[in-house]
């Protein structure tokens, strides 16, 4: 278990942030990488095999950054009578393998499933977070607590609106995430400071794990995902309390949250089979490339299970 100080340089302990503190935080943010080069340029090269749809825009030039087009890719032979599967990445923009795992899936595996399924991939839901390496958006709102109506985050609201309008049956949704050492050095302390609370959970699991939906755990589906990932990287063991990130283990490598209650992206579609992946790129036993491959393996494991259990 990693333990860090909960001290944060903005705000006063125990006092939630107001506009002044939020502006001070925003003023510290800088662009560190390019969504346009790292993501949109790759999407452009995929346009021969997939339909590219701009489903919205984040008007963040007002904050001194860019206006970000929000894009997704969908299989060309889209048919309403076919089951639909959704992959999302970059809900937390700083979680790199989520974005690049979604793109790698499109580059290497997605076409293998387009006869069975309508495939929809939104590789980077939070491009400002990707560029500035942040969990929040410029308003200090966490998109992965914002899949609610009305949503407090445009990152969540715009993909929710698009998915709600596509029609047909959505059978699977996999949301790609990471848990990193910066969760303890930056993001957990920032959250505690923003909300005027004390953080008491510093656990960062060493390895890959899943977050299922407590309202529909789909244990066999989760196991299929983990079995596929285990061929690429190691699965996280529970801590001495039988927990991962402070949550009791539901099965090996899996904890469960109420996705809709907490506004998590896993609640986006109401699909029968849902999960959130978590890899640990800072592990001594994994590389960033293995983390990307693990994300792809997770999607493939899920798709293979769903294909065998939906008659597709």
Amino- and carboxy-terminal Cα gap = 43 Å
* Radius of gyration, whole Å: 19 Å
Strand segment count: 10
Q: Kindly report the name of the CATH homologous superfamily.
A: Zn peptidases
Helix content: 25-40%
Specify the CATH class: Alpha Beta
Largest sheet: 8 strands, mixed
Tally of separate domains? 1
User: Which fold name fills CATH's third level, the topology?
Assistant: Aminopeptidase
Percentage of residues in strands: 15-25%
Contiguous runs where pLDDT drops below 50 for at least 5 residues:
none
Chain oligomer state: single chain
Count of individual helical segments: 8
Organism: Aliidiomarina iranensis
Domain Peptidase M14: 31-310
Family: Belongs to the peptidase M14 family.
Protein name: Peptidase
Structure characterization notes:
The protein is α/β, with parallel strands linked by helices and 312 residues long. It has helices at residues 19-27, 35-45, 96-108, 127-132, 154-164, 182-195, 219-229, 288-309; strands at residues 50-59, 67-75, 84-89, 118-122, 170-178, 209-213, 243-244, 247-248, 254-257, 273-279. Strand 1 and strand 2 (67-75) form a beta hairpin. Helix 3 packs across helix 8 and helix 7 packs across helix 8 (288-309). The mean pLDDT is 96.
